[in-house]
Amino acid sequence: MSSNIKIERICDNCGEAFTARTTKTKYCSKKCNSQHYKAKLRQEKIESSNKETVKTIMFPLDQLRAKEFLTVKEVATLLNCSIRTIYYYIDQGNIKAVNLGKRMTRVKRSELDKLFN
To answer: Is the pTM higher than 0.85?
Structure first.
């Protein structure tokens, strides 16, 4: 089905004027169409990656606030410091912790709240 329509249009990608043969044509060439499509996909990937990053950052904090007993790594995440610093505070007696076994140190949530009061 051929068309005898000739419409002057401006390419959505490069901004050049061209003659379109259909009313739906947006790009002056296949090259411009491909460039716009790739740019759109790239932008969508960036946006999804940013959303995933925000979700990854926020998810553990929401989960940690609900827990009663925390690991040393979780305490370090909440206090925004290193794991070694938390062990130092435990050794100094600033944070009370219970060692349930080898590599199983737990801190009660109320102990962290007392630290800031």
So the answer is: no
